[in-house]
Design a protein that fits this description.
The structure is a single chain. This protein is an alpha+beta fold. Among the domains are: about 80 residues; about 60 residues, no CATH class; about 100 residues, no CATH class. Helices cover about 35% and strands about 10% of the residues. Helix 2 crosses helix 3, helix 2 runs parallel beside helix 4 and helix 9 crosses helix 11. The longest helix has 23 residues. The relative contact order is 0.06.
Length: about 600
């Protein structure tokens, strides 16, 4: 409508279009002029309630209402599946119910006669008799119906519910936190439905915190197991009264479970439990920040709390790594720097991996730590049985037999090794520090456990059934994996971590070296030491240290009671086995 309410202006008013509720489709010309309001179909439970209103309010009337509703829904479902536009309505159900009352025949035959007479048009459209109609799928029965019994169970069982939640039947499982509605599949029985309700709610609440439902695959197995353990602890605290198993909601793999049960994992697990028990998930909003603290526990293994936890298990507890204790039994480095004059011992060359890139004497079979005593003796400590940051359990795939074809990926390498042991423990070499054994076969075929050290990357195969000194043929596949994300904790004590452990013997010598650079005999040595001292960043300093250690040569020998480490640092004599401890000492210092 337009008018002249004011000179130069026109007013326009829009009239709402009329509503259309007919059955015929609209023509293209009319579609834009009507608001389309689709009418929701009644679900079976609602239709049965309508039929009960018409029939006598007796147990017999309820039975008749149920039978009429079932036949009505079977007919409606079949018509929908065939995409036929003719659909029975709730009014048809009311009319057939009234016809049953008028006829007064409440037998099966009486109900069938009324249905055939009043639904004749629909049955003609299906070209089937009432008896020939197929049963509707279980999903269609009760679809969309509110389940008051399940809703009541939900209120009484789950704590912390401050708003009503609606439990409905549907053709799929879903949760709508905004409208506080949970839909469960109609075909589930009561116990399955309860489990599904709790699972959906717990997973939705966890993801709402900003954390993923699954642990990060880039983390190592122990960190992933710790993540699942935290989820289980949280679930048991909030949903433990529901009798739903936490592992069914947040499943932990066998590898993660076995890794968590390892003795070396217990100190970190106990420390994590202490923090989790004191953590209030309802009050604390920054869940990712709390996980940052928990996942960083293995990075400060020498902390006071961890040392206390280690003492709990007594003799069975894994001892923290202490170089000052272990160096007493470790062999000292040979003081002879005349490498060429040394007698070369004969050794066999055992080819394990079928690769041209990695030579056999560079396989990773052991890892040594360098320690310098206060007197200047250089000692190497074998870290074979010292699990500094724990171990993870691996469950490799089973390799096919010799008579079957094996296809390897481009980054995989096949290794074959004949080993024997007096205690059933077998060390399996690898090529790189981040290698993982992903497939394995033993001959004879025996039950085994495979673990990988989180710090050294060394693999150990345990075969309890193996006899003493029995030779086992092990065929396995290694592949490198991307290293897990490093988690740094602010309270870390770097001076006591293995990679930065600088003994008093190292400090004593290197303090003197860097405070007396000008007193060094050689101008070249002064220049190289000054470059190390003046480096602007870590990369530049490592390059300077490398340049200093590359020039080790000569056959000079230290005096009998001289500080051997100081002799190597200042005189740079010897071969690779002499410059390696010096390089490590410089880096740690």
């Amino acid at each position: 409508l337009a008018g002249d309410a004011h000179p130069g202006f026109h007013l326009f008013a829009t009239i709402n279009p009329p509503e259309y509720s007919g059955r015929k489709p609209l023509s293209p010309a009319l579609k834009g002029r009507f608001r389309h309001l689709p009418i929701r179909q009644y679900n079976p439970a609602e239709l049965q309630t309508i039929a009960e209103k018409v029939l006598p309010q007796t147990p017999e009337g309820k039975i008749m209402a149920k039978k009429l509703t079932e036949a009505h829904c079977r007919l409606r479902t079949y018509l929908q599946q065939k995409n036929l536009p003719l659909q029975p309505t709730s009014l048809d159900l009311q009319n057939v119910a009234r016809a049953v009352i008028r006829a007064g025949d409440f037998t099966e035959n009486g109900l069938r006669q009324c249905l055939n007479r009043h639904y004749r048009l629909y049955l003609m459209a299906t070209n089937l008799s009432l008896e020939e109609l197929p049963e509707p799928p279980a999903l269609a029965v009760g679809n969309g119906a509110l389940d008051p019994e399940m809703s009541q169970w939900f209120y009484q069982t789950v704590s912390g519910i401050n708003r009503p939640w609606f439990i409905r039947h549907s053709d799929r499982d879903s949760i709508d936190e905004k409208h506080h509605e949970i839909c469960i599949k109609t075909r589930l029985n009561k116990e399955e439905a309860k489990t599904e309700i709790i699972t959906k709610l717990a997973q939705a609440r966890w993801q709402k915190s900003g954390l993923p439902q699954k642990p990060d695959e880039s983390d190592d197995i122990f960190i992933r197991a710790l993540y699942r353990h935290w989820q289980h602890s949280w679930f048991n605290r909030h949903f433990g009264q529901t009798t739903v198993d936490a592992n069914s909601v947040f499943p932990m793999t066998d590898e993660e479970e076995q890794t968590l049960n390892m003795p070396t994992s217990q100190p970190y697990l106990r420390e994590a439990d202490q923090r989790i028990s004191a953590w209030n998930s309802n009050a604390v909003q920054l869940w990712p920040g709390f996980w940052y603290q928990i996942s960083g526990l293995p990075n400060h293994w020498v902390g006071d709390d961890i040392n206390k936890a280690l003492a709990v298990d007594g003799d069975n507890a894994p001892e923290p790594y202490n170089p000052e204790v272990l160096e007493k039994e470790a062999p000292a480095l040979d003081r002879s720097t005349n490498f060429e004059a040394r007698k070369v011992t004969e050794s066999g060359d055992h080819i394990i991996f079928d690769t041209y890139e990695d030579i056999s004497h560079m396989y990773r079979c052991s890892v040594l730590d360098i320690y310098v005593t206060a007197e200047g003796h250089i000692k190497s400590i074998n870290l074979k049985d010292i699990h500094i940051r724990g171990v993870e359990t691996l469950m490799p795939d089973r390799l096919p037999g010799r008579d079957q074809t094996l296809t390897l990926a481009s980054d995989q390498t096949l290794g074959t090794l004949d080993v024997s042991s007096d205690n059933g423990q077998y060390a399996l070499p690898s090529l790189k520090a981040n290698d993982y054994i992903v497939a394995l076969r033993t001959e004879p075929d025996l039950r085994f456990t495979l673990v990988r050290d989180n710090y050294t990357g060394l693999h150990t195969l345990s075969i309890p059934e193996a006899k003493a000194n029995q030779t086992i043929k092990v065929t396995y596949v290694v592949e490198p994996r991307e290293p897990g994300k490093e988690t740094r904790v602010k309270q870390t004590r770097p001076a006591t971590d293995l990679d930065t452990y600088c003994s008093e013997g190292m400090k004593k010598v290197l303090n003197k070296v860097f405070t007396t650079i000008d007193q060094q005999r050689s101008a070249k040595v002064r220049e190289l030491l000054q470059a190390i001292k003046d480096a602007k960043d870590t990369d530049q300093r490592i390059k300077a240290i490398k340049a200093y250690c590359e020039q080790f040569s000569g056959k000079a020998k230290p005096k009998r009671h001289a500080n051997f480490f100081e002799f190597l640092v200042t005189r740079r004599q010897g071969s690779c086995r002499h410059r390696v401890p010096v390089f490590i000492a410089f880096c740690r210092y």
